[in-house]
Design a protein that fits this description.
The chain is mainly α. 68% of the residues lie in helices and 0% in strands.
Length: 165
């Protein structure tokens, strides 16, 4: 994705897919392609590979988010805590971006619990990565943040599905 100069980090793109699918958009696939593929040249082989990878990410997210078995997994690197914090922040920003593609009608349709979850995701999106400690306790904190984001995404998806049905 970096080689084809894709505008979003991998975790951020994954978050966009989850947010978009949770937003209640009438045609989320068309919005996904319009938002993410505009910068990718259609005649560039590397860009075509990038689009194919993104299509697989989107299809996987669509399957996982709709699974009542809660199989959604965030697309995060297996790396040092600093890289994971950045990816968690990027994922949360992408998720909010994807949700935001639904416009103002989204927040108005959310319950109080949904709006509170949205606010907490916003706080994760504002993480100050320079202030993270370099110890083992950080891994536990990161796992808790990851689990919160996963549960928040599934909860918001379920809430939007119940209001759009």
């Amino acid at each position: 994705m970096r080689r084809c100069r894709f505008a979003f980090a991998p975790a951020e793109a994954h978050g966009i897919a989850v947010g978009l699918l949770s937003s209640g958009q009438a045609d989320p696939t068309a919005v996904w392609q319009a938002e993410l593929y505009t910068e990718l040249a259609t005649d560039d082989l590397l860009a075509q590979e990038c689009r194919a990878l993104l299509d697989r990410v989107y299809a996987t997210v669509a399957q996982q988010i709709a699974d009542p078995g809660l199989t959604l997994r965030l697309f995060l690197p297996e790396a040092a805590p600093e890289a994971i914090v950045i990816a968690l922040r990027d994922w949360a920003q992408g998720f909010l971006f994807g949700l935001g593609l639904a416009g103002d009608r989204l927040e108005a349709s959310l319950s109080n619990d949904g709006r509170e979850l949205l606010q907490q995701v916003y706080e994760v999106a504002q993480l100050d990565v320079s202030r993270m400690a370099q110890d083992e306790a950080v891994y536990e904190d990161l796992m808790q943040i990851e689990e919160f984001l996963r549960v928040a995404a599934v909860s918001l998806y379920a809430e939007r599905q119940s209001t759009t049905c």
